[in-house]
Amino acid sequence: MFTLSNPHLHFSLDPGSSSWSLFTQTSETPSIEGARLNGLFRFNQPDWKHLNGLRPWQWRGNLADADIFKRAQDSVHGPLETIIARARSGVDSLAITVEFALPKERAFLLIRLNAKNIGAKPCSVIRLNPLFVGPLHRTGAVRISPDAAPPTFFSNGWGSWSFAGAVTSRGGGERRPG
Predict the structure, then answer these.
(1) How would you label 135-145 residue by residue, b for 16+ Cβ within 10 Å and e otherwise?
(2) What is the pTM of this model?
(3) Interatomic CA distance for residues 2 and 100, integer angstroms
(4) Which of 90, 143, 102 is nearest to 2 (CA)?
(5) What pLDDT does residue 142 have?
(6) Class of residue 44 by CB neighbours under 10 A (exposed 0-12, middle 13-18, buried 19+)
(7) Where are the domains of the chain?
């Protein structure tokens, strides 16, 4: 188990389960528990008859055999404590590095995913997910304080004719001029 802590947050990375968690230091919520990482890539394989010869490959975020270490560094956010994991991707031509950094005096976590093609065949990154969690994914949970406002996100419509505005977990959407 690898951990980072500051006065606001406590972060842990469990290579055995390939999951990570983030808790506040003052209460049990909000928190992220048992989150995982993953990614989807496509490799050029001319004999593959689908997707114009781009064969898909899914990285399931496995960190069990990763080379993991801690490092202190300076940043625009002040001093950082960082955990770096160099994952074994399962594909010889792909090197994946994950970095988790916690500023010493600030209440946020920085996450960087880096996928590098070190092989001869072209590769496309389709997606990299640093936060893969919830019942749909059968892993972990995000817990929010019961008194907090409902989770909200901004949805930007595809074109001028589609909805753009704030959407809550209660299903409400509110159109905002913009």
Answers:
(1) eeeebbebeee
(2) 0.74
(3) 11
(4) 102
(5) 81
(6) middle
(7) 2-147, 149-178
